[in-house]
Amino acid sequence: QVQLVESGGGLVQPGGSLRLSCEASGFTFSRSAMGWYRQAPGKERELVATITSDGTTNYAGSVKGRFTISRDNAKNTLYLQMNSLNPEDTAVYYCNGLIGLRLYWGKGTLVTVSS
User: pLDDT tens digits for the chain (115 residues)?
Assistant: First the structure.
C-alpha cells in the first residue's frame, strides 16, 4: 500500500535550517507529483511547495527564496530544505503525493522554530 513517511523535524533557532525528508513506497514515485504542506496550531493546512514528476516546482509566497523542494527518484524520497527559519514557520509539515486521482498524505513531522 501507499506509504509516505516524513522525518527531519525538530527544534531549531530562528535563522536556522532544517531538511525534511519523505520516504515513499507502494507506488511509482518518479511518475507522481509531490508536495509539502504545513499546519500551524489553530490554523488550516496550507501549501508550502510542490514538485511535478518532471521537476517543475512551485512555492508559497511566504517561503519562496528560503525553502527548496527536491526529489531523488532513485531513492523514492522527497526533500524540503528550509533555510532562514522564523517562528512563523512552526508547524506540522506533511508530505503528499498525487497518485492517479487521489491525494495521499503522510502523518507529518513537527518543526518548531524558537529561541
Answer: 999 999 999 999 999 999 999 999 999 999 999 999 999 999 999 999 999 999 999 999 999 999 999 999 999 999 999 999 999 999 999 999 999 889 999 999 999 999 9
Residues pairing with 3 in the sheet: 25
Question: Is-contact 55 71, C-beta < 8 A?
Answer: yes
Residues 6+ apart with CB under 8 A from 101: none
d(CA 74, CA 61) in angstroms, rounded, equals 29
Q: How far apart are the first and last CA of the chain?
A: 40
C-alpha closest to that of 105 among 26, 57, 35 = 35
CA 11 to chain centre: 16
